[in-house]
Design goal:
The chain has 421 residues and is of the alpha/beta class. Helices cover 42% and strands 12% of the residues. The protein has two domains: 2-44 and 144-257 and 276-413, TPP-binding domain (Rossmann fold), CATH 3.40.50; 47-133, no CATH class.
Length: 421
């Protein structure tokens, strides 16, 4: 294992790494960046998985994409299609064709360019959505989903990050490129508030000043006041629970409502163009008011990395987003920033530089910088999400993995039995 942990470009032992990670968790600011790989263990898909699902759903998809020059044969052979970028391209093509190509009433709609592009768009939207459900379509929106065993490590991550905070330190920062609700469900299960920029009782809208607020116990005095009851969540690419109808404000809605009003119709094959109100990736998302929301999320990410005494731990992110990569590389100018990257395929790029993809080149560049600020963990499954969470140390006063659940269960048993505390 030690051969796959590098700090400053030099291999270090697992014990040294655990000691280093323990020190980082005590810094003034601690954050995590999670990508698709962090949700694979609980039912999600990697970008490659989304692409394979899309082409399996529609046998004509590859031919149509090639016809429109949206992908190349090399993309197909290497399975390196970025579905997020593809969604953006298809949307742009569709917009152009609708404006410049009149519909032929005598010809079948699905055989015309606009019809073909709408069919492609529907297929891609369906695959992206299925990847983010994490649970089966029927149960999405049910209560207590966060209690499922598949979200065990998401619950543990939140508990460890919050309980490691010291008096006067900031609450943990969570950044994710995922649309799924794994973190929200896990936090709800263990009673942790997530500040995600949205506020409101009946209508939750985005207000950036929410990220400057925090929760505390007003009855606690002295040192007891330091305890955190919350974490900050920044969804850099949107969420299954965000919607925008007819250029209105971005709203966050309950998952059950998102399922019945938007997700079910989409997965059942209803046409989506001009009626797709779920927030999805692509450059077109920067139009209108949604640009404000995404811009604020990325600004907060960049601002966090520029703070003194800061650590960011990256897991499940494949470095396929140029904008995020640029922010991370630029943040290395902060001398007190520490970055820990869990990258399972590290051994595949540690020797030969030929034929590397752009994301792999970025990892190779980070490793070759030989900065003590950068620690990279490889080793296949040793860098997966569950292993990453196990590496995060427990504070001395944090007894067991199930402490929160045990306490809640004990109180419920007392209440149900009629005993008085």
């Amino acid at each position: 294992m030690s051969n796959f942990i590098y700090q400053g470009g030099i291999a270090i032992s697992e014990d040294d790494f655990q000691s280093h990670l323990g020190s980082l968790c005590q810094l003034e600011n601690i954050g995590v960046l999670l990508g698709a790989g962090a949700s694979v263990g609980c039912g999600g898909m990697t970008m490659e998985g989304v692409w394979l699902d899309a082409i399996n759903c529609s046998p004509d998809l590859l031919d149509e994409l090639l016809t429109f020059n949206l992908i190349t044969q090399e993309n197909i052979n290497n399975k390196d299609v970025n579905v997020e970028q593809l969604l953006d391209q298809v949307t742009q093509y569709l917009s152009v064709y609708k404006k410049t190509t009149p519909l032929n009433i005598e010809t079948d709609f699905e055989s015309q360019p606009v019809g073909k592009l709408q069919k492609i768009l529907l297929c891609l939207y369906q695959s992206v959505t299925k990847a983010a459900l994490l649970v089966n379509q029927e149960s999405f929106g049910d209560e207590k989903l966060g209690s499922q065993d598949k979200f065990k490590y998401h619950r543990e991550l939140l508990e460890k990050l919050i309980s490691n905070r010291q008096p006067g330190q900031a609450a943990p920062m969570l950044f994710t490129t995922n649309y799924d609700l794994s973190l929200e469900w896990a936090a709800e299960e263990i009673g942790i508030q997530l500040v995600n920029g949205f506020s409101g009782l009946h209508t939750r809208t985005f207000q950036p000043q929410n990220f400057d607020l925090s929760f505390r116990n007003v009855n606690a005095k002295g040192e007891a006041r330091f305890g955190h009851y919350h974490a900050y969540l920044h969804k850099l690419h949107g969420s299954l629970s965000w919607i925008q109808e007819h250029n209105s404000d971005i709203k966050e809605i309950p998952s059950a409502l998102a399922k019945s009003r938007y997700i079910d119709p989409l997965l059942n094959g209803e046409p989506v163009y001009d009626k797709q109100f779920l927030i999805y990736p692509g450059a077109n998302k920067y139009h209108h008011t949604i640009g404000f929301v995404y811009g604020e999320m990325f600004r907060r990410f960049s601002e966090f990395l520029s703070k003194p005494q800061t650590a960011i731990i990256i897991n499940g992110y494949g470095f396929g987003d140029y904008h995020i990569n640029r922010i991370i590389l630029g943040a290395l100018l902060n001398p007190s920033l520490h970055i820990v990257i869990f990258y399972p395929e590290l051994d595949k790029i540690s020797v030969d530089a030929e034929g590397l993809s752009e994301p792999q080149k970025c990892i190779k560049k980070l490793k070759s910088l030989s900065l003590n600020q950068i620690t990279i963990v490889g080793g296949g499954s040793s860098a997966y999400f569950d292993s990453f969470v196990k590496y995060i140390p427990k504070p001395v006063l944090f007894p067991r993995d199930t402490s929160t659940q045990d306490l809640v269960a004990a109180i419920n048993d007392l209440v149900q039995s009629g005993n008085q505390i």
